[in-house]
Amino acid sequence: MNDGPGPSGPWLGWYLVRILRLGSFIEALLWLWMRDYRNSDASLWMLWDAMARAMVGKWKEALHNLEILEYQWRVGSKFQRAWRYYCRDYPEPLKQLFYWSRSIWSDEICLLQLRDQMIKDGEFPSALPEIDIKGL
User: Fold this and answer.
1) What sections of the protein cross the membrane (predicted)?
2) Which of 68, 76, 85, 132 lies most in the core, judged by the most C-beta atoms within 10 Å?
């Protein structure tokens, strides 16, 4: 409970609320994206992909303010490369390569590579049980 000094108002005595940083939210989206990729029900994967694509636009808008970008948008080191590639923020040699041979999957390959590495390291399940959520 919040009994210490702080702003006054009708919320004194209530529990503190923690707000998720954007970088942590992105990590969660990427985790869910990797989990539901190739799932028999593609609608979940499409939901995570649409949400992550919306975050890409916001991330690109924040690129001009490095202080905010560094604090709020920082994803964990494990996800950094995958996120930047997902945002199509490639290193210069790859930009030139993808300019000529742009594949619709080039921004997703890095997420799949990360998923495979996490499965290999035991940080991600290799197979998930199928659960019918339609009746829930």
Assistant:
1) 12-33
2) 85
C-alpha span between 27 and 91 (Å, rounded):
21
Contact predicate 78/54, CB 8 Å: no
Is position 81 within any domain?
yes
Question: 41 vs 36, 46, 70, 98, 136, CA distance in Å?
Answer: 8, 9, 35, 30, 15
In a domain, 14, yes or no: no
Could you tell me the CA-to-CA distances from 100 to 3, 58, 94, 95, 96 in Å, in that order? Answer: 61, 27, 10, 9, 7
Domain assignment present for residue 109? The answer is yes
Residues 6+ apart with CB under 8 A from 36: 44, 45, 48
Cα–Cα distance measured from residue 11 to residue 54, given in angstroms and rounded to the nearest whole number: 33
pLDDT tier at 28 (50, 70, 90 boundaries)?
very high
12 assigned to some structural domain: no
The two three-digit tokens of residue 58, written as one number: 């916001």
Give the CA radius of gyration of the chain: 19
